[in-house]
Amino acid sequence: MSKIANTVKPFARPLAVVGGVLLIVAALLPWVTFSLNSGNYPDRATLQYFDAPFGVTGFRWHILLLGVLVLIATFAPIPNKGRVIRSLGWGGLAVALINSVFIVAEGGGLGAITAADGSSAFGGVVGVVAGIAVILAGTGLGIEPPTKWKLTLSTPLAYLVLLVTFAAVLVAVSATLTAGGQGGPANPYAGGLFLSFLGFAAGLLTALNGVGLVGWISELSEKHRIFSVVVLLACALLLPFTGAGSEYWMTVAANIGIYAATAIGLNIVVGLAGLLDLGYVAFMGIGAVVAANLSGAAASKIGLDLPFPVAAVIAAIIAGIFGAIVGSPTLRVRGDYLAIVTLAFGEIFTRSAQNNIGGLTNGANAIPGVPPLDLFGKEFNQSLSIGSVQLPAGVLYYVLIVLLVAGVMAIFANLKFSRIGRAWIAIREDEDAARAMGIKTGKAKILAFLVGATLAGLAGAVFAHKNGTVSYESFKFLESVTLLAAVILGGMGSIPGAVLGASLLFVLPEKLREFSDYRLMIFGLALVLIMRFRPQGLVPDRHRRAELADEDVGGVPVDEVHEHDTKGAKA
Amino acid sequence: MRKHSVKSAAIVVGVLLVAGACGTNKTESGASGGACDTSKGTLIVGVIAPQSGGLSALGLGIKNSAQLAVDEANEKCTVKGYKLAVDTQDDEANPAKGAQAATKLSSDPNVVGVVGTLNSSVAQTVQPILSQKKIVQVSPANTNPTLTRGEAFATAPKRAFDTYFRVCATDELQGPFAANYLVGKAGKKKIAIITDGKTYGEGLAAEFAKQATAKGAQIVAQEKVGEKDTDFAGVIAKIAGSTPDALYYGGEYPQAAPLSKQMKSSGLNIPLMGGDGIYDDKYISLGGGDGDLATSVGAPTDKLDSAKAFVDAYAKKGYKDAYGAYGAFSYDAANSIIGGLATALNGGDWAESKREDLLKAVGAYSGSGATGSIKFDEFGDSTNKVLTVYQVTGGKWNSAETGEFTG
Amino acid sequence: MSTLLQQLANGVVQGALIALIALGYTMVYGIIQLINFAHGEVFMVGAYGGLATYTWLVPEAVKDVWYVSLPLVLLGGVAISVVVALLMERFAYRPLRNAPRLAPLITALGVSVFLQEFVRNFYPNATAALPFPGAFVQGQLSLGPIKISWTGVLLIFVSIILSLLLQTYINRSRMGRAMRATAQDPDTAKLMGVNPDRVIVLTFVLGAALAGVAGVLFGTYYTNINTDMGFQTGIFAFTAAVLGGVGSIRGAVVGAFIIGLVKTLAGQYMPGGTSYDYVWIFVVLILVLVFRPQGLFGEPERVRA
Fold first, then answer.
1. The dihedral sign for the CA sequence A190, A191, A192, A196
2. Which of B22, B45, B11, B32 minimizes the C-alpha distance to B335?
């Protein structure tokens, strides 16, 4: 690292300028030499850009913006110049590389992005070169840890900043969900454009982090905690009014919410108490089965039709009881062995559900026809109009689930900072020491399982009504692994982490449906890479972060670990 | 670390630049091609089937066969003024994911109909979503009778969703037909049943058992194997204790073939019979032995020109995956949607409001497909009640009996 | 009675197969305390490697000559398994040697999913089950009422021989001593001049070689293979390793035979029959873990940080 940095150092600044200019040039060049067989590459990347040379849109606009920002960053007096420029460079490189790879794959060879049949289009190549140049320049300028701002604001001003920030987050989420448009035969390049947008957004975000803005804002929101939570909740509820407020995204978002709520429950067991659970989705399954049986669905054997809130509470309680039962071996079994007990339990659940145990699960036929929720005289699967605004169907589920997730998060946060939460963390760190300190470890561990399972059962009850069918196929081992991956990707023990992790694991496959053949393969690879490069997750828990850096990464000092991590995330 | 990533990136770029001899796949006419008028745009036939995971072999066959039907329609200009395209959505064999896939398709105004799903449990979540938007759905593979006739399908049938059709036979048809043959024709009186615990196999075996008992046979053993099991020695030894003279297997060929093989090599030399899930050449290559039986919907392929045409056309396209157990059904399902669309539009313009007309047109559709004549009854089930019993003789499936199931 | 004897024989054949895989689990866990979930996939890859060898490398003329083709296929399967295990160790596990214990476990899950899907996507026609040449050894052995196919006999024979050889190797050889030393106390072993990397690599190689043999023998015994086969068999094998006491060679073999027998006997005699045979295996596992957490032959759990 230092070798390259030293070589580049003397002319880092001119290199940054050259790179920035080249990025702008790349945005203004054509990218594809001919009309691809599945239709023109979007954003006028083919030669027809001459029709409107300055009508730069989409990914070309992103590249242009990054180029301009590189130039600004080079000359403006900003802190931590090297890191910011390097981040922007990674963004530019990602956008250029992703689009080029897609064009090459679609165009059947490098001719598509260089020269073919008398027409030439070097936008992609220039973009890649420019990206590399900017990265090198940034490295040469020196990388420091993200700057810490000492700026403090008066409360009203802080509220204003937070409001603006969260509004920006809302816009960004909506933009991410709609980036690349909805894939399909009419829009064959949606996947590539979406990835390109992600590259752009990640570059921009890490640059902001480098300047210190992200750290400052998160500190600010920490200080005005309640205000932030309220605004964030409001933002989540406003999502249906943005461009992402289609029926499709409401369905996806509702599913994400159900899994996020479950993942938060799992986070109690794994993230706080440190008990690895590989059969966790079974509790969600139990909740769903109970709710379905109490819903008056034609296939349910119990002829009861309880109102949803009652059924949901019963489902949660029964799942919680099973959680305590499954958790009871923890009194004697530790560590990896416990993981196997939970895995065994998960398998027993699927197998029993498949065999229609006690006539409750309807076996392979599943329990269909669970009625949609119906509260306050409104069926939840209908569309809704507020005043003159027509909201898509599924929006009520979305609202319900946002509230559910918010509630679960509140429970989690309260538990985490309570006496029992601290007991869990103590057990996670060193069980023997915790016991020596007088913590009743057995009770605490069973309680972790119980609370986690209860939350999963509650999510399962919503799941049953939302999907209308409860089948053992929805609760298999791979789902448990996915939930675990959500917790770990987000950051163990971290509250927003589980939500972020679940969102990524659900949004990515939705946006990249054209690669669905390779979905699981990429998922597996991603697990390996995350563990390799960012084991503490995307939003590491504060405590946890310190622990991982201090003890477990082989004695590397904190700063270097960060350094290492940000690289990994971007590579 | 940094050095590595920069260096390897440089190497990758370099290799790409050297290796790529600046080739392209540019075609002069573009992909739209053909002589048809496609000026009005593209209409979409959705496909919902597993494209990843353990059932992807069947799902990919469904996708390719629907694609074949759409390609042929485009060549023949079946739908005037429009180009047709397939939009395949992976349901991962998971009902929740199926619901998402259905919502995605249903939010596209150009989707005319959907071919799918593979799993009955996924169909249960897909049905209401498509039904809300009046999008016609034709399943190539769902065998659960409740999907068309409601929960009380046997006693008080009531159409569950008027947007849902299927071209495959329900369990109610295939199971009893098999029982008639096995008990009546082949004279087997002590029958063992093994199922794989999945919707298809369980339903089939239950209907088989009912009819077999009614015909005077005795079900001497009923066992279940896991969907990922490979060793059947235990279950074989168990049923061997009751000395059956035939085995009915409710499930698909990947388990049925080794089961048959292991059964015969353990000395229990009785025929295995199954449904269309085992009627596949793979069944024989994976170990299914002479004397084994299978039922399948429609007249035998070699006696049906339209079926032969499908097999040839599929081979000609050179798809990576075989059409599998449900390819022919998927082809027919897509054709019923396309045929219905041509009738409903009748040269006119597509609009979402046309979906009602399309539903009626599909309901009234009648054609000759790869699995025989395709027509739907008032519940959306296929009226094609012609079934064939096949038997493995000389390492090949040969038809043993073709007939209409009458009860 | 004859049914019981036959079921016992069936259980022994299954146990023999599971034992070959369980050994890999137990050795790796003994050395680096990692549940290598991907080991089942190493077994699966071995089967595909064997099939590839048979399809493309074994000359047409000797395909039916079992004493030529079977060793070649075994060699091919073992080679592929070993290569995959080495890559896995080098690129997935080694960088995490000092990470918190959850990290390598998740990695192992990831590797498992990846390998399964990789083979499914890139081995020709692997989306569905593929036929495996089973004609190496035909016919069956009849012992009174018991019938076992010769491939089953081969499986039992190979499994027992290999586990004895492994036991001897670990007890007698220099490298075996190094392995035991590392398992007991990695730091002291290092001070005594043992190279931990070499020991770990060797452990993975040995485990993978056994899994490769198991993969090929699985193929010849069942005459078809699929990409899912590693997961379920792997879970059984892992259960066997835990049952026997993770880290113990003898325990893994005994545990494997117990699992094989539990599955067939529970299918025969327990309520619910074969529908619940799988469940009984896990019930036994949970009971063992609760009442004897170190497994049948394991040492009481060491205190680990």
1. positive
2. B45
Taking CA atoms, C62 is separated from C55, C58, C66, C117, C132, in Å, by 12, 7, 8, 32, 16
Q: Which of A350, A429, A527 to mutate to test the interface with C (most CBs of C within 10 A)?
A: A527
* Distance in angstroms (rounded) separating the CA atoms of residues A249 and A465: 18
CB of A246 less than 8 A from some CB of B: yes
Q: Which of C37, C39, C84, C109 to mutate to test the interface with A (most CBs of A within 10 A)?
A: C109
Interatomic CA distance for residues A208 and B335, integer angstroms: 54
Q: State the best of A528, A529, A530, A544 to mutate against chain C, taking most chain C CBs within 10 Å.
A: A528
Low-confidence ranges of chain A (pLDDT < 50): 546-571
- What amino acid occupies position B400? A
Angle (deg, nearest 10), helices A495-511 and A190-211 = 150
One-letter amino acid of A562:
H
Distance CA B130, CA B402 (A): 36
Q: How many angstroms away from the CA of B286 is the closest CA of chain A?
A: 24
Residue B56 contacts C, CB cutoff 8 Å: yes
Q: Would you write out chain C's pLDDT as a tens digit for each of its 305 residues?
A: 788 888 899 899 999 999 999 999 899 888 888 888 899 999 999 999 999 999 999 888 888 888 888 999 999 999 999 999 999 999 999 998 887 777 888 899 999 999 999 998 899 888 778 888 876 667 778 888 888 888 889 999 999 999 999 999 998 999 899 988 888 888 888 898 889 889 999 999 999 999 999 999 999 888 889 898 898 888 899 889 888 887 888 999 999 999 999 988 988 888 777 778 888 888 888 888 888 877 888 765 543 33
Query: Using a CB-CB distance cutoff of 8 angstroms, which residues of chain B are in contact with residue A139?
Result: 2
Using an 8 Å Cβ cutoff, are C205 and C23 in contact?
A: no
What pLDDT does B142 receive?
87
Spatial CA neighbour of A92 closest among A20, A146, A189: A20
Cross-strand bridge partners of residue B390: B294, B399
DSSP labels for B224-273?
A: E--TT----HHHHHHHHTT--SEEEEES-HHHHHHHHHHHHHTT----EE
Distances from the Cα of C237 to the Cαs of B305, C35, C260, in angstroms?
Answer: 51, 12, 10
Quote the CA–CA distance of A140 and A5 in Å, as a whole number: 4
Q: What is the ipTM of this complex?
A: 0.90
Q: Which chains touch A (3 or more CB pairs under 8 A)?
A: B, C
Residues B342 and B83: their CA atoms lie apart, in Å, by 12
Count the neighbouring beta carbons within 10 Å of the beta carbon of residue B24.
Answer: 24
Identity of the amino acid at A43: D
Q: Quick one: pLDDT at residue A93?
A: 93
CA distances from A494 to A146, A459, B283, C141 (A): 21, 19, 51, 60
Please compute the mean of the pLDDT values over residues B193-208 and round it to a whole number: 88
Among partner residues A333, A339, A518, which is closest to C290 by beta-carbon distance?
A333
Query: Residue C88: what pLDDT?
Result: 94
Asked if B61 contacts B330 with a C-beta cutoff of 8 angstroms, the reply is yes
| A185 Cβ under 8 Å from any chain B Cβ | yes
pLDDT of residue C140: 78
Report residue A135 as tokens: 């990265």
Q: Contact, B100 vs B46, CB < 8 A?
A: no
Q: For the segment B152-186, what is each residue's pLDDT rounded down to a tens digit?
A: 777 888 888 899 999 888 888 888 999 999 998 88
DSSP A6-26: HHHGGGHHHHHHHHHHHHHHH
Rounded to 10 deg, the angle between the A395-416 and A225-238 helix axes is 160
Beta-bridge partner residues of B164:
B137
pTM of the model: 0.87
